[in-house]
């Protein structure tokens, strides 16, 4: 039986992805990286906590917790089940993004992301999504990528919309939010391979005509 959580044999997924302003970098499990992540998470706890339980003091208490996270994603990269990156503006770490739930059977995956408060509203995350989706569609042979977020998380939803993802619907009480102590609705957005290819054609045409 095929393992739907394993990717098909593709070229090695890139360790670094470069955009016009930002760079996505694979972060090795070393304490210099763990400390970098931990410091940004601590500085942004209140910004992240309404949506991301791992940002709580219980879940990310010390740099060792961030090191454990890096070790886990390094293992998943080796298994080709998750490809996670730090988002860097010049040399400054400003957030994270990954492609997860990769299914070779259904040729689908999901992109998740977070950004430091002082970097929100500047288009960095929309750029990061487009950089990662290009690699995911091209390298992993995907047909569909989805983005999910809490229905109250307008900033995250706006990122998906700006990146050209189509709103599919709101799922009622789809997950329990421990921070708010309530069941939360969730929104799902998606982009198909045909839509991604059309984006590339339109972008190329604009460059030529411009």
Unreliable residue stretches = none
- Rg measurement, Å: 17 Å
Overall form: globular
Order of helices and strands: EEHHHEEEHEHEEH
Tally of distinct domains: 1
In the sheet with the most strands, the strands line up as 1-2-3-4-5-6-8-7
Beta-strand residue fraction: 25-35%
Tell me the total number of β-strands. Answer: 8
Find the structural class using helix and strand composition: alpha+beta
Question: What is the CATH C level class, in words?
Answer: Alpha Beta
**What is the helix content?**
25-40%
Describe the structure.
The chain is of the alpha+beta class. It has a single domain, classed as Gcn5-related N-acetyltransferase (GNAT) (Aminopeptidase, 3-Layer(aba) Sandwich). Helices cover 37% and strands 30% of the residues. It has six helices and eight strands, in the order ββαααβββαβαββα. An eight-stranded mixed beta sheet has the order 1-2-3-4-5-6-8-7, sandwiched between helices. Helix 1 packs across helix 3. The longest helix has 17 residues. It is globular, with a radius of gyration of 17 Å. The N and C termini lie far apart (50 Å).
């Amino acid at each position: 039986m095929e393992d739907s959580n394993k990717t098909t044999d593709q070229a090695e997924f890139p360790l670094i992805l470069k955009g016009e302003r930002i760079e996505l970098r694979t972060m090795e499990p070393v304490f210099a990286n763990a400390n970098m992540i931990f410091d940004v998470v601590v500085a942004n706890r209140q910004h992240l906590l309404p949506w991301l339980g791992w940002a709580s003091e219980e879940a990310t208490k010390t740099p060792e917790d961030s090191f454990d996270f890096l070790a886990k994603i390094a293992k998943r990269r080796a298994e080709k089940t998750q490809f996670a990156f730090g988002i860097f503006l010049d040399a400054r770490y400003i957030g994270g993004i990954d492609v997860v739930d990769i299914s070779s059977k259904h040729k689908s995956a999901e992109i998740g992301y977070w950004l430091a408060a002082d970097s929100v509203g500047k288009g960095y995350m929309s750029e990061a999504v487009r950089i990662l989706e290009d690699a995911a569609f091209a390298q992993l042979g995907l047909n569909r990528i989805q983005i999910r977020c809490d229905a109250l998380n307008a900033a995250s939803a706006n990122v998906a919309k700006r990146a050209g993802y189509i709103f599919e619907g709101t799922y009622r009480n789809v997950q329990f939010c421990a921070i708010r102590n309530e069941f939360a609705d969730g929104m799902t957005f998606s982009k198909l391979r045909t839509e991604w290819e059309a984006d590339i054609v339109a972008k190329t045409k604009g460059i030529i005509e411009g």
